[in-house]
Amino acid sequence: MTTVILKPHKEESLKRFHPWVFSGAIAKVVLDASHKSAAPEEGEMVCVRSSANEALGVGHWQVGSIAVRILDFAAEELPRNFWHERIRAAYKVREAIGLIRPDNNTYRLVHGEGDFLPGLIVDVYADTAVVQAHSVGMHVSRNEIAKALMEAVPQIQNVYYKSDDTLPFKAQIEGEKTGWLIKNQESKIKDLDEFWSMENGLSFRIDWLRGQKTGFFVDQRENRALVERYAKGKDVLNMFCYTGGFSLYALRGGAQTVDSVDVSQKAIDLVTINVARNFPKATNHQAVVADAFEYLSAQKAAGKTYDLIILDPPAFAKHRDAVKNALRGYQRINAKAIEMIRPGGILFTFSCSQAVDKEAFRLAVFSAAASIGRNVRILHQLHQPQDHPINIYHPEGEYLKGLVLYVE
């Protein structure tokens, strides 16, 4: 196996179980004798050692600032049953927290570093696992992962691979980045346009072929349930609604009206389908294709107000260089929402930008409230759910931030 030797004193983070080896910490790379190239191949398994030749772990090699993602600390090679054991351990966590139930077959099974599998995401929808690789190493290992999923998780009959938008764009990728890894011919999947999954008793059509991420935003499940608690008798606006998750919970919670807004016609089509499936007689929901800022400005000009507004935008900052502009965006969109909330109304506001920390996000929302001049109280501080765990040795895994505000 190729060996990565670290510079003196650069092993401390690995001894604290942080799973990343940065390129600047590497002194030299000793290639396996079988190599024909002058450098490790992307996705290759390598052994990491200290400058004193102490084995620190094995992981996937990748070109970039993060050169190695550690899979197993202090090992010199992966155990034979590694993938099965790690995936089975992740499944047992989801069982223990009560996520796998007859009324809930939608959950995240593997959350990267949070489940000690850096670079791997697996979401489960009914009998199908949708796999995303965020590293070349996980792409290379995709077939082993699919086999382990089938063996370790009882309800999984199919494994779909969707990594066309998540793999490093400069990497030399071999093999398909999307498509079936395993498909059980006897499974219920006949037509993907008729594939449904259940979350807390509500049915959602999952479009992993054309949809964002793995087809659904699993990470807002608990926060959607909180919206349901606040929705009774209220006029609700769900901005950036995507497939309408918050809208369905608000309708079930007894909202007087629900407006779902998204810039994507495909998203609005899915919202309409999901509402019709769960509330076939509902007349209090409307779905609108519109830009968020333009919609809020137009509604304000028309004198429209709401009792409850949900702001769950896509990531405004995907990297550190974009943080400043992102914070301005969060301030602007929250100011517009706060203007349109009736006295005594509620605002649910979120950031899924990992590059924006919770203090910076909170300051942006504070600035928005101050600019409008209304009194605002924080009722809840929200975060990602239990099936998106944060590895205690990898605090960077905390990405979803949310506030529930009471607006006087």
Provide structural commentary.
This protein is an alpha/beta fold and 408 residues long. The protein folds into three domains: 2-73, PUA domain (Archaeosine Trna-guanine Transglycosylase, Chain: A, domain 4), CATH 2.30.130; 82-194, Transcription Regulator spoIIAA; 219-407, Rossmann fold (3-Layer(aba) Sandwich). It has ten helices and 20 strands. Strands 16-15-14-17-18-20-19 form a seven-stranded mixed β-sheet, with helices on both faces. Helix 2 packs across helix 4 (142-152) and helix 8 (292-301) packs parallel to helix 9. The longest helix has 17 residues, at 323-339. 44% of the residues are buried. The model has no long low-confidence stretch (mean pLDDT 93).
Number of helices: 10
User: Unreliable stretches, pLDDT < 50, 5 or more residues?
Assistant: none
* CATH classification class of the largest domain: Alpha Beta
- Helix fraction? 25-40%
CATH topology of the largest domain: Rossmann fold
Q: Estimate the strand proportion.
A: 25-35%
Please tell me the overall pLDDT. Answer: 93
Strand ordering within the main sheet? 16-15-14-17-18-20-19
Whole-number radius of gyration? 23 Å
The largest pleated sheet is described as: 7 strands, mixed
| Shape type | globular
Number of domains: 3
Class from helix and strand fractions: alpha/beta
The SSE order reads EHEEEEEHEEEHHEEEEHEHEHEHEHEHEE
Compute the separation of the termini in Å. Answer: 63 Å
